[in-house]
Amino acid sequence: MKTLNNFLETTEYKWIENLFINTGKYLSAINYIVEHQPKFIVEYGGGQSTLMITELVNYLDYGGKVIGYESDEYWYTKHIESGWNKHNNIKLVDIEQVDLGVRYIHSIEEVQGVDFVILDGPDLTKFTPYPNTTYNLKDIVDSLGKEVPYFIDGRDGFRKFYSKLGYTTDIGDIKL
Questions:
Q1: Is the whole model's pTM more than 0.90, yes or no?
Q2: Distance from C-alpha of 41 to C-alpha of 111, rounded to nearest angstrom
Q3: How remote is the C-alpha of 114 from its chain's centroid?
């Protein structure tokens, strides 16, 4: 059986251990992926983590796919230059501010069938007034008619927003 430890020990991605595992960053998401093997993962705030997740999913070889959405052209270009978009699955999209939230702009059809969502963007300090969430998870739930498990990297405002909506599938965040 392929495991996270096998992945870290037998691939070129040992760096993931120091950057993500040992710090606790993304640890709940990584453990969830290994244990539940979601078929379609969507990440808002694509980048190095998108590469890490994609490589893990590919290593586990269960037929999963990953799409990351990035809204900042500067960072998108940096992701490409750094080799983090080697699978061409980080997409540059526009973003809009709506009331006290933001929304990455893409068609809802692009994410049909998603069974795990990661919220790790955008940089909210670029917006005025300061938003407290992204609405994309809500859009997905509304479209599917059911909740999907999700992971939020930090971003307490996101957690509070989705908790107030009554969402119960937040897999949590491990703090080391």
A1: yes
A2: 9
A3: 12
122 φψ region: left (φ > 0), alpha (ψ -120 to 50), beta (else): beta
Sign of the CA dihedral with 64 first, then 69, 75, and 78 last? positive
State whether residue 157 is helix, strand or coil.
helix
- Which residues sit opposite 151 in a β-bridge? 118
Q: What is the DSSP letter of 14?
A: T
- CA gap 30, 3 in Å, rounded: 11
CB neighbour class for 149 (10 Å; exposed up to 12, middle 13-18, buried from 19): middle
Domain ranges (residues) in the chain: 4-164
Both tokens of 65, joined, read 């796919």
Please give the pLDDT value at position 176.
Answer: 61
Give me the torsion for CA of 62, 113, 26, 149, rounded to 10°: -110
State which fold the 4-164 domain adopts.
Rossmann fold (3.40.50)
Helix (H) or strand (E) holding 21: none
Distance CA 92, CA 97 (A): 17
Residues in the chain: 176
50-97 residue pLDDT tens: 999 999 999 999 999 999 999 999 999 999 999 999 999 999 999 999
